[in-house]
Automatic annotation (TrEMBL):
UniProt-listed Pfam families: Phage_zn_bind_8
Domain DNA-binding phage zinc finger per the UniProt entry, residue ranges: 139-186
Lineage, broadest ranks: Bacteria, Bacillati, Actinomycetota, Actinomycetes, Pseudonocardiales
Official protein name in the record: DNA-binding phage zinc finger domain-containing protein
UniProt organism field: Saccharothrix violaceirubra
Source species, domain of life: Bacteria
C-alpha cells in the first residue's frame, strides 16, 4: 500500500468513526498507517475497515480501528488461499518404515532369481548384450530428443505428437526427426 492509499483508508475510517484521530499537517499519522499496512492491498484494507464498523464487536465497545485490526483481518482471510495455492491439505505424511538393507537385498535377489527362471536369462553374455542395447537405445533417444521435430514442431526434449496433440503410439518420434538426428536403422528399431 502506498502513501495515498493509506491516506484514503484513514479518511474512510475517520468518516465512519468520529473518535478517530484527525490527520496532522505533516502527514505523520498517514505515514505510520502506510508503514503498518505496507503489504496489505488497498481493496482488502478497505473491506477490513467496513467489516470492522459493521461488526458486533464495534457496536458493543465502540473502539476505533487500528492498522493492527486491518492486518489481523487480512491475515485471517488470506491464509486459506495461500494454503489452497500451496496444495497443502493439512494432512500429515505417514512415517516411512525404517530402512533395512538386508530386506532390500533379499528382495532384489528374489526378483533377479524370478527373472532368470521365468525368462531364461543367463548371467554373462546375454546380460552384457542387453546392457549394450540399452546403452545404444538411450544414446539414440537422447540424440533424437536433442533436436526439434520439423513435422509436429515438438521442441527440444519433448516427444513427438500426432495431429491431436497426443503422444505417438507406434514410434516415439517422426521419421524426419530420426533422420535429422542421424540415428542408424538398427537404433531406430530399438527406438
Amino acid at each position: 500500500m502506498n502513501l495515498s492509499e493509506a491516506g484514503r483508508i484513514l479518511a474512510t475510517a475517520i468518516s465512519l468513526d468520529p473518535k478517530m484521530p484527525q490527520p496532522d499537517a505533516k502527514g505523520f499519522i498517514r505515514g505510520v498507517w502506510q508503514k503498518a499496512l505496507h503489504d496489505v492491498p488497498y481493496e482488502d484494507a478497505e473491506k477490513a475497515v467496513f467489516a470492522h464498523y459493521r461488526s458486533d464487536e464495534y457496536t458493543r465497545h465502540r473502539e476505533t480501528i487500528s492498522p493492527a485490526d486491518i492486518v489481523q483481518w487480512w491475515n485471517a482471510r488470506r491464509r486459506p488461499t495461500e494454503r489452497e495455492r500451496s496444495g497443502s491439505t493439512g494432512a500429515r505424511a505417514i512415517p516411512a518404515a525404517p530402512f533395512d538393507p538386508e530386506r532390500l537385498h533379499a528382495g532384489v535377489d528374489r526378483a533377479v532369481a524370478a527373472l532368470r527362471a521365468g525368462k531364461r536369462v543367463r548371467a554373462g553374455s546375454a546380460l552384457a548384450v542387453a546392457e549394450r542395447e540399452g546403452v545404444r537405445e538411450s544414446t539414440a533417444r537422447r540424440r533424437v530428443l536433442a533436436r526439434p521435430c520439423g513435422y509436429c514442431r515438438a521442441q527440444v526434449g519433448e516427444a513427438c505428437v500426432d495431429g491431436r496433440g497426443r503422444k505417438l503410439t507406434k514410434s516415439e518420434a517422426h521419421p524426419s526427426r530420426l533422420v535429422g538426428a542421424e540415428v542408424t536403422p538398427r537404433a531406430r528399431r530399438l527406438w
